[in-house]
Design a protein that fits this description.
The two termini are 24 Å apart. By secondary structure, the protein is of the alpha+beta class. A four-stranded antiparallel beta sheet has the order 1-2-3-4, covered by helices on one side. The model has no long low-confidence stretch (mean pLDDT 87). The chain has two helices and four strands.
Length: 78
């Protein structure tokens, strides 16, 4: 599933913490070969990039919670 990290790098839910994003870690989610995405912290916010049924998407959010909601919604919808 994922590599064992120091506890301050993961939340209780198993997602990356804001500290780990600041250290350069990237959170990824892969549903199929054509639907996948990632969240990374850039200087201007959390970038959510990926592919949905082969079509590229890229959105930027100020809060990591909003970025996760968007990535989860992209993964759920057909």
């Amino acid at each position: 599933m994922y590599t064992e990290l120091n506890p301050k790098f993961r939340t209780k839910a198993g997602t990356l913490t804001r500290y780990s994003f600041a250290c350069g870690y990237i959170e990824t989610k892969e549903i199929s070969t054509e639907t996948r995405g990632s969240i990374a912290l850039e200087p201007n916010g959390y970038h959510v990039k990926g592919f949905k049924n082969g079509v590229h998407f890229w959105e930027i959010f100020v809060k990591v919670s909003d970025a996760r909601k968007y990535l989860n919604s992209m993964a759920k919808t057909g």
